[in-house]
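Reviewers asked in the last cycle whether our approach scales beyond single polypeptides. To address this, we selected a multi-component target totalling 462 residues and predicted its structure end to end. The input consisted of the following lines:
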Amino acid sequence: MSDNEDFNLNDLDDKELVEQIQDDLYDGLDEEVFEGVQILLGREWDANDVLGDALVGGMKIVGEDFRDGILFVPEVLKCAAAMKGGMGLLRPILADSSIDISLGKFVIGTVKGDIHDIGKNLVGMMLEGAGFEVIDLGINNPVENYLAAIEEHSPVIVGMSALLTTTMPYMGVVIEEIERLGMSNDFHMMVGGAPLNQEFADAIGADAYGRDAARSSEMASNYIEAQRA
Amino acid sequence: MDKQEQQSEATTNRAISKRLVLGCGALVHELVALTRQTPELKEAITLQCLPAKLHNTPQLIAGEVEKHLSKNAHKYDDIFVAYGDCGTAGALDAVLEKYNAQRVTGAHCYEFFAGSQAYEDIVEDQLGSFFLTDYLVRNFDRLVVEGLGLDRFPELFDAYFKHYTQMVYLAQTESVELQEMAKAHAESFGLEYKYQFVGINGLSAVTSPAIKSAFQIEVLDSSVQPINAHSPA
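The resulting structure, written as structure tokens, was:
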């Protein structure tokens, strides 16, 4: 990982630079990640390759270490901020790109009555790193917000998050309404949050339960790949 | 049964009529206070605590509890875990089931200290409520500021707290000093301050009738087999 070594990222060859961006991402060094992405783009790298090789590659390691208890929330939030900086450069280019490597749209939001969003934001960041286009509805979302986002974005997956035992049942309300409207086969429904477990997800009729950010992102990617196979 | 046999059985009962209370380190003051409220339980309860810093890594709680129970559960016939679900998403309950152990009802200490309805009322009244207990007031810098990495990464403050509007101190004791500290913590985070004395009754299940009964059987009636004799699965 990067220490306080004083060196110029421009001096690195492409392979070294990609590895350095991954290291800097792991260390949450947002300015260095931003600069590294800028350099790769300056070397006429395709934005998709920068995303896949440098950022997603780096976030994969972050996700695995978070899952395995090597990294914790503060460090992962720093990684997320660094990723966000790099994505800020890539997003406009990717939006204009004729090649669509996106895994699809993922609508995500914390449910009504709940203002907790750290877990949701981590999932969103991991999903973006994995190649999803993330539509983040923020916090305290009534069912109407999910329905409006589904109508507007036609997502492949809808994700709901809750931290409170008092708010997690609202996920069931949203799923019931989606089923009532006959939309449940149009997309995959994922749920997550600290007080949830698989039994609860099954009970409310969710398609999948993500135990943590890394697993949620992995499950979402696996689902899309299985759909496309 | 002659006198010697009775004495022998009484000794056996005394040896196994024990409750292990395995608690979160953040509850140690309250657990000690509860057992002191009932002096006759002093010998029946063994209190052990896991590090309070697990509060910030709920994914590790179930594993740590299991590690402890696997080594110690066989020494006791009754196990009570002074944790809520504490963000383990049912993983703690799965461990407790293996050891036939009980825990405090509730999602976390805020809920069982305040009582479920009172806790829900506070959250419903203001969604952005951040809770403190006596322990968290005392250890705010270590568990909240350092625990969330705010000492190293102050720029993360908004990521954690931008949606919070008030800091609610659910007090276990009526301490002016702690109230002053809690108020200062709220001010330092730019949050409204709310105080509510809730006491320690929310934890009283650790001295629930089951253990009292077992204790009384041990002392008063040695001819009756003790209840609550559990061993690990």
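Residues 7-16, 212-233 of chain B have pLDDT under 50 and may be disordered. We regard this as preliminary and will revisit it once experimental data from Aim 1 are available.
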